[in-house]
Amino acid sequence: METKEQKFALPVDSEHKATEFRLFSVATPHMRAFHLSWISFFACFVSTFAAPPLIPIIRDNLDLTATDIGNAGIAAVSGAVFARVAMGTACDLFGPRLASSALILLTAPAVYLSAIINSPSGFLMVRFFTGFSLATFVSTQFWMSSMFSPNVVGTANGLSGGWGNLGGGATQLIMPLVYSLIHSQIGSSKFTAWRIAFFIPALFQTLSAFAIFFLGQDMPDGNYIRLENSGEKHKDEFSQVFYHAITNYRGWILALTYGYCFGVELTIDNIIAQYFFDRFHVNLHTAGIIAASFGLANLFSRPGGGMLSDLVAKRYGMRGRLWTLWVVQMIGGLLCLLLGKISSLTGSIAVMLVFSVFVQAACGLTFGVVPFVSRRSLGVISGMTGGGGNVGAVLTQVIFFRGSRYSTEEGITLMGVMIMCCSLAILFIYFPQWGGLFCGPKKGVTEEDYYLSEWTEAEKQQGFHKMSMKFSENSRRERGKKGVSAPVPVPSDYESTPANV
After folding, report:
1. What's the whole-model pTM score?
2. Average of pLDDT values for 74-100?
3. Which segments constitute the Major facilitator superfamily (MFS) profile domain (predicted)?
């Protein structure tokens, strides 16, 4: 223990993951990774949603129709669907530092090119390729799960993801302000000013990529390359990592439910400014402020969901995490339905603010569960779940907000119904070692049985399973206070064939 305390500024567990979360610390490697992750994800969010607050200007310049705007909004979130799964795989194989910095740099040119587009198709393309950067969410969550122990991983995931998502609200304020300064103070025409404004998010995104690459570290003990070369970490095979992810049904359920919390958040980011501008006839600046208030709730709502997940887990374990996720997401669906029904400006703003808290808290609660689905395939599971958020956003916008089949308020109402229906899938998540919403754990099954089942006997004989074994020990607290009497295997059991889970 003395060695660990000398090596790390924060107390750590047997995997050298931090067991405490100190928000105002920048200690290497744990807290530095936290700050690098949320700032870079924030930058990508600002870039991806830089266009919506300026749509009234851009649509006049490029002669965009309602369908063009809807298609571009869909393109912005569809780009990250497969990118998120790919990012999860890249994190598993190459580490979050290299995967994240590479993607951010590869997508930055699309943000710069936004300044020179001159057609609806060009607008759609730059939004599509910029949207790929949202896959950095996966590396953010993977990184936090690699740096923080199970007792605080929900808090770390919630804060990093929430403060990154904050960019979706911040850009509603940033871009109109930058545009106004360029147009009014510098004297550029309005059709030139919006183009120059895009250089601000593009530069921010570029700088964040270099910061991650040069200042970040993959794991508490070092970067993947050094750990694999020294033999401290097993270089896993893609086929095995991918197989254990896609055959774990819990990952698919979380991908579905995340599609109707984070997916809904992405949808709202795309439509809300224009919704208030068109329906309630407020000016562009006011619409931007109202829209920003939805995204800015991420300052505390998504982090609050992650913290709540950790809090209930201390007493009720994994079953507490699942129950809280289900209740919060169902309430979010009800509030979304109500938002579409209210016809007054004041009432709509009030319901939207409360709705934002619940839908974003559900995102934090989801990633309070994700790190426990698989130890070997954590990246792919994170990617599947994150990708599910984008799939949900795409489907929702295609069905309810593309063209003129539904009015925007009708689309919002139906989106609320979808949230509640999809949330029912949480009822089927069951961990044999901890239980589910209505059933307790399977008798005699331990954490080692569950996590070591991802490794073959041959792999265990070579010691590849050791990191999973340590994670099993550290995740035993997910039994909750009432589960402390559950069986604990002796070291000789670690090499035995795991129970069927």
Report:
1. 0.84
2. 89
3. 33-434
